[in-house]
Design brief:
single chain; about 140 residues; mainly alpha; 4 helices
């Protein structure tokens, strides 16, 4: 019984190690691509597409490793693929959120709109009086 438990633990450790390298490579690629996007001034609207395009190879390798890991743990192929895709989406969303936040923080501030200074009310004009003025 203890031997079976020990063998299971070793197998799980080996399987987890099989996804550690692809995960690290993908995260490093995302970090590098986000830095490059900043220097290239990629728009906030296209940053996710940019990151996915820049890390296509690493993303594919990670997805394959995740699916394989989940299949060995008893998941169906469809569930494993869906779960792997959600994991990748999570990894991509963090640099996208960071990039969006930094872009908004670094955006040039709009110049305050100058409002014209209030003009003093003009002095009331003297009204002619009914009495003649003496000179």
């Amino acid at each position: 019984m203890i031997a079976l438990l020990g063998a299971s633990a070793l197998t799980m450790a080996a399987l987890q190690a099989s996804i550690a390298a692809p995960t690290s490579a993908f995260r490093t690629c995302l970090h590098d691509a986000a830095s490059k996007a900043t220097s290239e001034k990629v728009s906030v609207d296209t940053i996710e597409t940019y990151l996915r395009g820049a890390c296509t190879v690493q993303m594919g390798t990670l997805k394959e490793a995740l699916v394989e890991f989940r299949l060995k743990n008893g998941m169906s192929k469809k569930a494993a693929a869906d779960d792997a895709e959600m994991t990748i989406d999570d990894y991509v969303s963090t640099p996208v959120d960071n990039y969006t936040f930094e872009a908004k923080q670094n955006a040039p501030k709009a110049a305050p709109v100058a409002t014209p200074a209030p003009t003093p009310a003009s002095a009331p004009k003297p009204q002619p009086s009914s009495q003649p003025q003496r000179q």
